[in-house]
Amino acid sequence: MIHVQHLSKSFRVHVRQAGWFDAVRSLFKREYRIVEAVKDISFSIQPGEIVGFLGPNGAGKTTTMKMLAGLLHPTSGEITVGGFVPFEQKAEFKKMMSLVMGQKSQLIWDIPPMETFLVNKAIYEIDDRVFRQTLDELVELLELQPLLTKPTRSLSLGQRMRCELAAALLHRPAILFLDEPTIGLDVHTQEKVRRFIAQYNREHQTTILLTSHYMGDVTALCDRVLIINYGTLMYDGDLKVLTETLTPYKLLEIHFPSVPDVSWDDYGELVAVEEGKVTLRVPREQVPEVSSQFLRNFQVYDLNIQDPPMEEVIKRAFQEGAHVS
Amino acid sequence: MRRYWRIFQEFFRTCFVEELEYRSEFLGNLLSSFFGVGIAVLTVQIFFYQTNQLGGWAYADVLILLGIFNTLQGAIDFALRPNMSRLLEHVRKGTLDYILTKPVDSMFYVSFRHLVFWRLIDILLGVGLIIYGLVQKHYIPSLADILMFSVSLFSSLVLIYSLWMMLMTTSFWVIRIDDLSFIFYSFFETTRFPIGMYRGWLRILLTYVLPAAFITNTPAVALLGKWNGVTTLLSIGIAGLFLWLSRRFWRYALRSYTSASS
Amino acid sequence: MFRKYIALIRMKYVEMLAYRLATIVWMTGAMVQPLITMVVWTNIYPSQSNSFILYFITLIFVERMTSAWDVWELDREIREGTFSNYILRPFHPIHWAIAENIVYKVLFLIVLLPIWGVLAVFVPALRPDVSGWQFVLFVTALFLGATLRFMFSYICGLLGFWVTKVTAIYGMFEVVSLFLSGRIAPLSLLPPILKQISMYLPFRYMIGFPIDIVMGTMTRVEIGYGFFGAMAWAIIFISVLRWLWKAGLKKNQAVGG
């Protein structure tokens, strides 16, 4: 569905001046700085996949996504999305994709979301029957019924996001770009949005590319992740494999009636000691042995084995800076 | 074409809903429109208190000119002006990206998305003033006059749209100024009176460089039966040229937007 | 007081720098309408072109130096509730507006005077034959005009405590003043009835009166009456301003800003 080869993008940034004199001078002679936002990235995405796109701020995620959506012209490299070259901005291409940006709204502020939907209906030339069908489905999945007729400005952030999603999906795009779709939402609404995305993908086989700051979005939705940092692609593959290679340890959480006085270092790296609870970081292959030792030698209430949190995995990925594949 | 007409109707409908949301009073808008026309006519009367012709035009002629001016101004305020600040906002907030991902011409979208239908009153008042001028002059235009008038009025609409679009497009770079429409109105003011008033290089400037002469004067002359085919053709040509230029400029701006923003 | 003003002016200066481009554009734009009117009059009376040129160029200068935008500022601040911040401080908010006026008008002066100087080299009509006395009278009248226009705008702005559409009302007054302040035509060319009315209303003293002093078309008696009228309106405006301010504060306290 999406093929990207040796994609690069650099920007020429105008260095701005402050005073009167400099402002006048900059009319004639401008100083520029070249910023390389994306450097030689290649990957491809199959139809129906949900792929998570991870990286710190300014890593090149949004730039890449905008190039895929045809909003930015690549400096070099090749992109095809659904058989189209995005920056040619063909109408057929635009009709098969959609973009949702968590921080930017396409809904019209002062009027109900339904009005925006009707504008989109006209723009995307959606047939009356198909429109009604799609709308009914989205209204049901996203629980929009009570929101449709309220002015957008009176909706909460979460309600607005659900309407944004509906507005973006009315023309049944085959590809959906989601840029930080859950930003600023409360945990409950985040959960709702995730469930919707997963379900929609299952039912319609929509190819989805998602960027997010919240690991929860990624772990819940994506089997596959792309990690980008300093404009280069550092990892492309299975999320589980990544966790195992990058963090070859697990977290052992042991609950005691009273915490014994032992030299913890013999078992693993001590992470935290709280009242009645000790957390240890133990290499993966030693986990079975260490846990049975504890169960044998101490009085233990409970023992949990956990994967390290995703945040930590990603942090490691960035710290090590190496290509993992 | 029909598709764009449908989209335009949709724009109009949403703006209607938006306007009702605020319940802006009918009376206030009506009053301000009448006030505007009244003041314009009063100004002309003050000039004609001291003279009986202006740049070769009699009182009734100037009223017709003013009627055309008012009609065109109404059209600008109806469809173009509300969109100026919106484009700035789109560029500043990055929501222009949504427009660019839609299968619709982006120049069409940014110039007609927001409409203030109250200003249609100004168009009606302008037409009223044209008719009043004709009555004052005891002149009934022939069918050919009206045809020529319509053609050149259409040209002026295209011309205004193009000039406006060019100004609006600069907001990709000049994002500090909140309301660039001010600049356009300054220029548009020059078309309020007969172009024959201006002398020397100013007249050349207003005829050939910034074609103010073709905006109100040509339609007015046509309506009064003094049209000539060459001028009308020229006005069509100039309108086409400026439309092409504004189109090129918009494309250029988009190109630099899509290769420069982050 | 003086120190406070220095601080305010500094702040307003920095603020203006941020909007310098917009300021210059607005200033240039404000010249267009008078220039068109000038062209109209030189067409009507070609033989008196020179005096019309002087009249309208002086008009541009006077109009800029007396221009007032406070009603829009106040309207916005009252609507958005930020005006309360000013009320809380132990310094009358009008001083902020005065400081801002000083900064912008110095800027106008700095831009306009050299332009006039350059134009005067090429256009003889722009070298007015003005005596020292006339000049002093002009500057005084200009100062009075700026004060009147400022106070009028501020008064309308304060009405924002009670009325929502003050800018629309002010806009109407501005249009009426187009005729009565001498911006569409020198007052001497107006129908006598309009000219009579203009003597009793404040608008003429905001713009037309200083220009007429430069043109030298008034007798001493007329100038005397003019200053009397301007002073009278200034006193009226000051009283109204004080009264409105007190009433506005009360109103503001009652509704809670």
From TrEMBL, chain A:
Keyword S-adenosyl-L-methionine in record: no
GO molecular function, one term: ATP binding
Domain ABC transporter: residue ranges: 22-255
Gene3D superfamilies hit by this protein: P-loop containing nucleotide triphosphate hydrolases
Keywords: ATP-binding, Nucleotide-binding, Transport
Domain of life of the source: Bacteria
Classification via InterPro entries: AAA+_ATPase, ABC_transporter-like_ATP-bd, ABC_transporter_ATP-binding, P-loop_NTPase
Keyword Nucleotide-binding attached: yes
Stored PANTHER family: ABC TRANSPORTER ATP-BINDING PROTEIN (PTHR42711), ABC TRANSPORTER RELATED (PTHR42711:SF4)
The name this protein goes by in its record: ABC-2 type transport system ATP-binding protein
Automatic annotation (TrEMBL), chain B:
Pfam families (alphabetical): ABC2_membrane_6
Membrane-spanning residues: 26-49, 56-76, 116-134, 146-164, 200-221, 227-245
Keyword Membrane on entry: yes
UniProt keyword Transmembrane helix present: yes
UniProt cross-references to InterPro entries, sorted A to Z: ABC-2_transporter-like
Keywords, comma-separated and alphabetical: Membrane, Transmembrane, Transmembrane helix
Entry protein name: ABC-2 type transport system permease protein
The organism of origin for this protein: Thermaerobacillus caldiproteolyticus
UniProtKB/TrEMBL annotation, chain C:
Record key words, sorted: Membrane, Transmembrane, Transmembrane helix
UniProt keyword DNA damage present: no
Residue intervals passing through the bilayer: 21-41, 102-123, 135-163, 223-245
Origin superkingdom: Bacteria
InterPro entries: ABC-2_transporter-like
Pfam families: ABC2_membrane_6 (PF06182)
PANTHER family: SLR1174 PROTEIN, SLR1174 PROTEIN-RELATED
UniProt protein name: ABC-2 type transport system permease protein
Organism: Thermaerobacillus caldiproteolyticus
